[in-house]
């Protein structure tokens, strides 16, 4: 049977999503942990994985200039609409960061000096942590295609889970509701939405809940720092009730949380947050099991 997948999302960054993911990774015991926040991969900072395999992530193509074959005719400078080619005292120069991969220069170059080659956009890794295997990645600065990289990580996580007979995949998703979040949510078994009781937290939660509804994915909510703004937390609970979304936990604010995370400890090590996280995990397992039997 394919592993059940739980994806942890937040409508925005900074809600404590990754800290919650790290705590769940510890509670899960048997899971493939997957860091799907490939633009700003933070989960490895908390789980300290040991990299076992490293792979290049290629996506799309980029122009490559062979300066030996180039006759400096300047045609590519004229044809490239993205100003990737320029001329200086030594001849024609290509800036690959400006290249959009359209292939026009390679088509028109009279001397075959330009070829289109796979674009290297980052790396992805299979690692081991103290809590189980982990898939994670790093997208190079300025590179796009994070959705494609997330799809690749999920596919590799599923393959690894099947190979080792691991029943669960736990994904720490990207923030927001754009292409990366869409790539993380489609087809997952259950989504945990981590939010905080602020006006922007509520607004972003609505959008994230809309995303789950659009893809018909069951979801539940964790309200982080719920005690800091009880009225706003109550608004989130009203929203959850109106959408039929269970509130899995109301995590209290813990003053020592940041220091604990920097020191390599978990929210599970703090007396303020540990009970609510254990409760959230139990509730989550109950909902996930219902998802399996759907
Ligand atoms: S079109 Fe080809 S030969 Fe002409 S300048 Fe560009 S790379 Fe060189
Ligand atoms: S592939 Fe297109 S965008 Fe890239 S350098 Fe050639 S003409 Fe410019």
Keywords summarizing the entry:
elongated; two-stranded antiparallel ribbon; Alpha-Beta Plaits; nine-stranded mixed beta sheet; 294 residues; 2 domains; Rossmann fold; alpha/beta
Describe what this molecule looks like in 3D:
The two termini are 14 Å apart. This protein is α/β, with parallel strands linked by helices and 294 residues long. Helix 5 (146-164) packs parallel to helix 6. It is built from 10 helices and 11 strands. Strand 4 (85-88) and strand 5 (91-94) form a beta hairpin. The protein has 2 domains: 4-58 and 124-288, 3-Layer(aba) Sandwich (Rossmann fold), CATH 3.40.50.300; 67-112, 2-Layer Sandwich (Alpha-Beta Plaits). The strands form 2 sheets. Strands 3-6-7-2-8-1-9-10-11 form a 9-stranded mixed β-sheet, with helices on both faces. A two-stranded antiparallel sheet has the order 4-5. 37% of the residues lie in helices and 28% in strands. The mean pLDDT is 92. Bound molecules: iron/sulfur cluster (SF4) (2 copies). Residues 63, 79-80, 82, 84, 99-105 line the site of one iron/sulfur cluster (SF4).
Helix/strand order: EHEHEHEEHEEHEHEHEHEHH
Helix content: 25-40%
What portion of residues belong to β-strands?
25-35%
Bound molecules: iron/sulfur cluster
Task: Please name the CATH topology of the largest domain.
Answer: Rossmann fold
Radius of gyration: 23 Å
Structural class: alpha/beta
Number of domains: 2
Question: Major beta sheet, specifics?
Answer: 9 strands, mixed
How many alpha or pi helices?
10
Low-confidence stretches: none
Shape label: elongated
Q: What's the rounded overall pLDDT mean?
A: 92
């Amino acid at each position: 049977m394919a592993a059940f997948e739980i994806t942890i999302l937040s409508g925005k960054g900074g809600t404590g999503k990754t800290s919650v993911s790290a705590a769940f990774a510890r509670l899960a015991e048997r899971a493939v942990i997957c860091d799907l926040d490939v633009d700003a991969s933070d989960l490895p900072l908390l789980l300290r994985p040991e990299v076992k395999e490293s792979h290049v992530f290629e996506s799309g193509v980029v122009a490559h200039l062979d300066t030996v074959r180039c006759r400096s005719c300047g045609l590519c400078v004229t044809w490239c609409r993205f100003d990737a080619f320029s001329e200086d005292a030594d001849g024609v120069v290509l800036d690959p960061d400006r290249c959009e991969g359209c292939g026009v220069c390679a088509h028109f170059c009279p001397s075959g000096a330009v070829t289109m080659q796979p674009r290297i956009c980052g790396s992805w890794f299979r690692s081991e942590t103290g809590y189980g295997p982990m898939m994670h990645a790093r997208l190079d600065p300025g590179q796009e295609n994070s959705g494609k990289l997330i799809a690749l990580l999920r596919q590799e996580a599923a393959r690894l889970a099947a190979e080792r007979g691991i029943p669960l995949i736990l994904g720490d998703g990207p923030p927001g509701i754009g292409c990366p979040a869409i790539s993380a949510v489609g087809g997952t078994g259950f989504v945990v939405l981590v939010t905080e009781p602020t006006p922007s937290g509520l607004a972003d939660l609505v959008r994230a809940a809309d995303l789950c509804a659009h893809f018909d994915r069951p979801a539940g909510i964790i309200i982080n720092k719920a005690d800091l703004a009880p009225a706003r937390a109550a608004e989130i609970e009203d929203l959850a009730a109106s959408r039929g979304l269970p509130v899995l936990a109301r995590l209290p604010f813990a003053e020592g949380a940041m220091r604990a995370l920097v020191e390599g400890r978990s929210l599970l090590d703090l007396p303020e947050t540990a009970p609510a996280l254990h409760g959230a995990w139990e509730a989550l397992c109950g909902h996930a099991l219902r998802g399996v039997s759907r």
